[in-house]
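Archive entry. Fields below.
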Amino acid sequence: MSRNSSAKSAALARIDRAARPALKRASYALTLAGVLWPVQAGAAALSIQAWAQGNPDGLLWAALLFVAIGALRALLDHWAGGVLFRMADGLISEERHELLAREAGRAEQAASSAALAALAAQKLPLLTPYLTRYYPAMTRVKVVPVVLLALTFYISWAAGLVLLVAGPLIPVFMALIGMAAKQASERQMVEIGALNDLLIDRLSALADIRLLDATKQAEDDFEARAEGLRHRTMAVLRVAFLSSTVLELFSALGVAMVAVYVGFSLLGEMQFGTWGGELTLYYGIFILLLAPEYFQPLRDLAAAWHDRAAALAVAEEMDALEAIESDTVPGQGGKAAPLAGIATLSTRGAVVLRGGQPVALPEIDLVQGETVALCGPSGAGKTSCLLALAGLVPLAEGRIVVAGTDLDEATADAWRTRLTLIPQAVHMPDMTLRAFLDPDATGGGLDTALKAAHADGIVAALPDGLETRLGETGAGVSGGEARRFLVARAILRGADVVLADEPTADLDPDTAATLIASLKDLAQAGATVLVASHDPQVIAAMDRHIDMPPAQKGESGA
Amino acid sequence: MKLLWTAFRLIWSAAPGAMWRGALMFVAVLLMGAALLGLSGWFITATGLAGIAGIGIAFDVFRPSAGVRLLALGRAGTRYGERLLTHDATLRALSALRTSLMRRLSRLSLPAMQRLRGPLALTRITADVDALDGIVLRLGLPVAAALLTHALVFLVLRWLTTPEMALTIALGYLLGGGLVMLRLVGVTFAPSRDAERANQTLRQDTIGMMRGRADLFVQGRLQTHLAALRETDDAMREAMTRLDHVDREAGLILSLLVTVIAGAALALGGHLVATEALDPARAAIGFFVALALGETVMPLRRGIAEIGRIRDAAERILEHDEQGTEAPRIGGAAHGAGIAAKALSFRREGASADLIHDLSLRIAPGETVALVGPSGSGKSTLLALLAGTEPGYRGEIEVLGQDLRAFGERELRAVLTMVPQRSALVGGTVFENLALAKPDLTTQEADAVLEAVQLAKVVARMGGLDGTLGESGAGLSGGESRRLVLARALLRHPDVLLLDEPTEGLDTQTAERVLAGIRAWLPEAAILMASHRRAEISSADRVFRLS
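PREDICTED_STRUCTURE:
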């Protein structure tokens, strides 16, 4: 995943391009602010020289000039900061939405949900310091030190020489440390992802872990991860602290040497270093005030180098995720007018890929109002077949014809509007039962639908009725009860195609019979019903059954 | 304020020694910065004066110039030490806090665990803990160090220059800086809190979207969900934009403040020199120190802008701190007596009648009992009671001849295993999933147990024990997941095995083989399975009916 050098990341190149215009404007303003410092320094030096020459009160204008230019520089910084923030904010938001929309549309999930959430909400913002600091620092470093160096040289070649020697050491050192910084950042990003991966899984499995007496082990695993994150984060910080310390030393030594040179020259103990003539107190203070500001842009660039390392690590993670090729779910998942035509369903030579394995669908021909069982041993691909018929998995071969038209990118959303899919394991979103069952808040039909699905009693038994929030996997009701809620939702939506996956799992024969009756009621009202099941009770109740074809030759040991 | 202080102590107390040393170094860094510029300014001005007066030879240049070098190097080195110490201590505290939050969750009651919303708990342990990292590093330490530095600098300036100069600088910074900071607290509190909340909602809803996306697609609500995410993002951006605005404004005001104070020191210095109250070199100290002290106030605004976020996160982290933990009990269990219930009754909280009333049951070692009854008759509840995860029962339960209440959690799990209806797998390899039940698992045993539950061929097709499962075990069909969960339970080699609908999702033939495999694996275990399938019921030695 990580390439050897800090070469081009596609994501970063794209972001850089979009950021360019704002970066230029802001960088010019910041550079101008840097170049204005000599005016302030001159004003201060003039004042102090006047004190020494016994003319201290006459130069109030110099103090005022010092304040005025300081204010102008502060305003420039303020303005540029605003331009940079708005640019970074807009760009990151766009990247975030493209990322989320792309990952949501994949037929097979490419990153764990928690790792994706961490990338979108925690890691993407790490691009901000890079965007707002690196390029401006790069621009400033090309102008400000050169101007200050030229001014220093103009006054004293010896002081200029000190700066000239100390200055370039900084970028060299920075490049050396930059590589270590990038590697440390990459490891930190990986560790953040791993911690999130581990957590989201372990949190969902807390009860199982407890029952298996693996609590201690799970806690130890987590502690190891948390400590790992600490180590990785500290490694990043250590490199950053070390480099900023070394750079501070360079600049402090440079400033101290200039100060000592100026001091000795003023005392008259050093007679060299100027272009003839003596170094006056005014010039001495002036070049002393320039020295720290000469180093500052170099130090800023070094700090921004770390921001760049972090941004590169994030960008490479974005690249890696983007590079995973997978099919997309046909359609957009948006609202659409129901597909016109009678609710029929056929497959012709259809094959889907699941985890790289081909799964052949049986030849299906369903007419409206029919109830059909889809049979086959476990692992034969019944669930994959239902997902394909719901347009959730793209076809590798063959075709699926729904309501007389091909199920494809263009028709998937409209087809799904007529459809309900009752999965084996129901995922309950974090919302009230009412909002889940009746997302458009139609209100009226909900009670009737619950009654028709024999689910009104389940609601009545819940502590807060329809305002209850169930657990993620439906904790609070049994698996069969959760499925009856989905039947109620199908009735409320007026779905006329129902695909159900093992609907009678975990149900006693009486309750199973009730659920089967609900499905038959739906068919009676004109819906086409396909049920994947191996339950003889279900198979017997349906009009007919279809068998899954035997496993493909690609599978071993079958 | 109390919450902030509690959170501050929480982070500080993880490594108080390192924090104290770091705090002292922090003050030292600020003092050395002021001293460095002050000394340099004095040195140059004094040498200039000496040069003008022609007394250069008599001037002691070595001590001041050595001081300049010492301060320059010392300041950089001390800053490095301070940063390492305080950051390391803070990260240690955060890591410990994460672990203790996780530990707290794993002490919850079983029903509470099942109701737990993963994404919410996740952001508690990640984002909320991360939010606390600024409380010492960017808030507590810099504020305290700045105040101390200004107090010390005031005393030194009074001695080196004049009281007017010392007072101008101290009051300028304290009043000006203090006002800016106070205003900043008020203005940033709400947006700082809102931005963090929106960020966490964004994370939670992203996880929710990815986990529920099949349903979102079928309901045609994926685009609606994405639009809702965008709205949350917009709310976050709006809060961040407000924060940025306030922050830059404060930065501007502080820059102006530093400039004005330095300018005032310059003007005052001129006045003092003119009235001969001060010599020019000492007057220069005032100006240069005023300039250097800017570094005490500029970084404060970052920490101040985090107060809303820190306080909110601290509140969430600290709120349910009173959860009691379960003390392990000691007792010696005798093997070989199966499980029994005598006159067992149980009533749900708030219910008007017993769900289970006066029930008695005994299962001997090696015996398999099928527990049948309509949905809602309390099959799963009875299993939970017997497994010791639902403590509020009346009557008696004996596991291996001992009262269930006398067991400690770990002792009970060592002899009794329950497989609930909804069992979760974790992302990772097949082997890792199995090893959850047995840390010292060997590959031979793993292969054997997979064979017992008819999963060997499936796993071989996935690439063997190293074949990987996606998030929450994605990649297996319903029936395959069920069998892997059973295999995991078998590895515990329990004396009592409680199963809730063990072969759900399996075809009859596979179900029969799996049940036979379980019995062959655990010939001496007492097995109770809640069931309605013919395959399960016919494999049992007898049937126990709940009505």
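CURATOR_NOTE: The longest helix of chain A spans residues 215-267.
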